[in-house]
């Protein structure tokens, strides 16, 4: 009826690996050079573009991780009640 919980979930990267993944993507996909003669508005827009790209990359990666986890309502009733019980006991 339902598949194994572990079968559909990819390993979640550690915090440092996650940062490295997102920041290296930002470095590859956005401009990287600021010249001393640029106006402050151009420099500001340069860094705002980097910040917004990084925000979008974090959001995209986190949504991909969360979408792999099963929804309790879609699990087999036994597995769902077991997870609810384990959660209550762990507290």
From TrEMBL:
Gene3D superfamilies: 1.20.120.1190
Residues in NOG1 N-terminal helical domain copies: 8-85
Protein name: NOG1 N-terminal helical domain-containing protein
Species lineage: Eukaryota, Fungi, Dikarya, Basidiomycota, Ustilaginomycotina
């Amino acid at each position: 009826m339902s598949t194994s919980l572990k079968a559909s979930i990819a390993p979640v990267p550690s915090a440092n690996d996650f940062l490295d993944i997102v920041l290296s993507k930002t470095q590859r996909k956005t401009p990287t050079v600021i010249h001393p003669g640029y106006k402050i508005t151009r420099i500001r827009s340069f860094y705002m573009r980097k910040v917004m790209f990084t925000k979008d990359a974090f959001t995209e990666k986190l949504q991909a991780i969360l979408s792999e986890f099963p929804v309790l309502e879609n699990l087999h009733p036994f597995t769902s009640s077991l997870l609810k019980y384990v959660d209550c006991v762990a507290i």
